[in-house]
């Protein structure tokens, strides 16, 4: 999994999403853009990818498209309309673009040594580089955005209360991770 961080300037959302999709198609990877104000950390997205892939493998997916299924898990909801809040929108905002090729055939993990893992990593790097090179009205200016989430926005979206944080003695990232994992239980 590769992540591209930056400030997205999107004038036409459909065109921006189409460009990301074309990059994904060209490199045989999934590309999904997120509003970074909702992404608590890298583990949030890594867990969403793992759970989405498991749902797809089991035929339990809601979305036909892997990128949308990943978005659903990252959002902790099975409602596509609600999950779209975590995606990018028109205007200028912090973004994190996920690039993931999935698992190589027969491999236990994409980081495995060997041709399959190397090819996956190369495809992800090439697609991430293509995302970084995007210009014009749908571009991403490099900036550190991962982990710079808006705590109030995240708490409101994921419905995390003070009482919940106090009870679990964890961080907001822990509470979000729990929401992502609970999506499987709530099916």
Automatic annotation (TrEMBL):
SUPFAM superfamilies assigned to the protein according to its UniProt record, in alphabetical order: PF0523-like
Pfam families recorded: CGI-121
UniProt xrefs under InterPro entries: CGI121/TPRKB (IPR013926), CGI121/TPRKB_sf (IPR036504), UCP022062 (IPR016799)
Residues in the signal sequence: none
Family in the record: Belongs to the CGI121/TPRKB family.
Name recorded for this polypeptide: KEOPS complex component
